[in-house]
């Protein structure tokens, strides 16, 4: 008598070979991290963190020679602000986190030194860091923003002009400090900007991280916020407006690595024109030690015309059941016709009503900046976008 032997489905190696070693990393925290470019395999565009990015257009930033552009910004004066140059082998470098992809590793290895902005004042200070002197030559940069314990500050990074830039921004928030970091991208139409923002937040400290992406051909700003001490609070907000042929990408990572931490993530975007593409990936990890965690993330997209594309992927990984709460949401859609009808009933034309909805949709994020002059300027920039729209 012959007994039929069957193997478990999926047990055998895949016919394309090396099945075990080719399985993708499923856990966000297990991704390869290294300051050495040689440790990363060549980017093909099929990787989980590159599959939505136009890789062919950014190849020079992934592995080619880069010039050092770390000192190409101007910084405003404020009480308790110290600017210094730090060697890349200093112990002050890498505290926010180290590279998780080829672009960041390539930039890390080619800058001569990091520019460190140390904030020490306990009285609220506003610091403007303006960068507009870059060129189209492939460039690397490294900036450290550090808030000393109990410091209180708003740091605004303004990016304008030409760029072909890959950079790391490290953010270190000391115990009981309150820090808001705002990164504004208003690049020229052909600019390419890849940025890794790596942050660590201390005990009972607060970090509010805000990204506003309006200009540039390809903009990819990826914030990673590590809540490494009890009572740490991290908030990530974003507003973006993608036009025809423009690629705006934001991959957000919140790492709850201590008890009683809190996070909020809210990104909102508008898209118009053929080929406008927005990508948002939100990863939240609640580790086993992070009891009492309170977390929520959301992404909302408003499509204004046909021909646009959005990729919105929220991910939530929980290793402990002892939490306050965790959740996520993602929506992409057209105008709410009830809102339009309400405004029309008040004597506002349909076109103007649609513009008002877009302004209010994005301003919900922009008003969190806390600087009236910057908020007004960004609102004007959004109005300019809308004037060029087919809605006009």
Automatic annotation (TrEMBL):
GO biological process: iron-sulfur cluster assembly
Record protein name field: Fe-S cluster assembly protein SufD
UniProt feature, compositional bias: Basic and acidic residues: 9-21
Span list, region Disordered: 1-27
Gene field: sufD
Family note: Belongs to the iron-sulfur cluster assembly SufBD family.
Entries under NCBIfam families matching the protein: sufD
Species for this entry: Leucobacter denitrificans
InterPro entries according to UniProt: Fe-S_cluster_assembly_SufBD, SUF_FeS_clus_asmbl_SufBD_core, SUF_FeS_clus_asmbl_SufBD_sf, SUF_FeS_clus_asmbl_SufD
Ranges in a coiled coil: none
Every SUF system FeS cluster assembly SufBD core domain range: 139-361
SUPFAM superfamilies noted in UniProt: Stabilizer of iron transporter SufD
């Amino acid at each position: 008598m012959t007994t039929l032997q069957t193997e478990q489905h999926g047990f055998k190696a895949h016919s394309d070979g090396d099945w075990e070693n080719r399985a993708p990393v499923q856990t966000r925290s297990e991704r390869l991290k290294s300051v050495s470019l040689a440790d990363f395999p060549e980017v093909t565009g099929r990787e989980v963190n590159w599959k939505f990015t136009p890789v062919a257009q950014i190849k020079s930033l992934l592995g080619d020679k880069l010039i050092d552009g770390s000192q190409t910004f101007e910084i405003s004066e404020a009480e308790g602000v110290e600017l210094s140059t730090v060697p890349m082998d200093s112990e002050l470098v890498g505290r926010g986190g180290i590279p998780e992809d080829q672009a960041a590793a390539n930039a890390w290895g080619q800058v001569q030194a990091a520019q460190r902005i140390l904030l020490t004042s306990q009285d609220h200070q506003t610091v403007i860091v303006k960068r507009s002197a870059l060129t189209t030559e492939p460039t690397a940069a490294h900036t450290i923003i550090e808030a000393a314990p109990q410091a209180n500050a708003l740091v605004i990074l303004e990016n304008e002009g030409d760029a072909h830039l890959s950079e790391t921004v490290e953010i270190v928030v000391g115990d009981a400090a309150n820090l808001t970091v705002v990164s504004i991208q208003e690049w020229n139409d052909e600019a390419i900007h890849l940025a890794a923002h790596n942050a660590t937040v201390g005990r009972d400290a607060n970090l509010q991280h805000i990204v506003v992406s309006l200009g540039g051909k390809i903009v990819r700003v990826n914030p990673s916020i590590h809540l490494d001490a009890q009572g740490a609070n991290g908030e990530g907000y974003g507003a973006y407006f993608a036009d025809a042929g423009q690629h705006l990408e934001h991959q957000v990572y919140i790492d709850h690595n201590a008890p009683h931490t809190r996070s909020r993530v809210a990104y909102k975007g508008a898209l118009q024109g053929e080929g406008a593409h927005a990508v948002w990936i939100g990863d939240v990890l609640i580790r086993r030690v992070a009891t009492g965690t309170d977390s929520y993330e959301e992404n909302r997209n408003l499509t204004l015309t046909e021909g646009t594309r959005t990729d919105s992927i929220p991910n939530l990984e929980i290793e402990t059941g002892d939490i306050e709460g965790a959740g996520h949401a993602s929506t992409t859609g057209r105008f709410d016709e009830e809102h339009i009808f309400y405004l029309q009933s008040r004597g506002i034309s349909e076109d103007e009503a649609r513009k008002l909805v877009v302004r209010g949709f994005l301003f919900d994020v922009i008003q969190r900046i806390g600087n009236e002059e910057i908020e007004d300027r960004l609102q004007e920039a959004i109005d300019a976008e809308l004037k060029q729209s087919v809605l006009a």
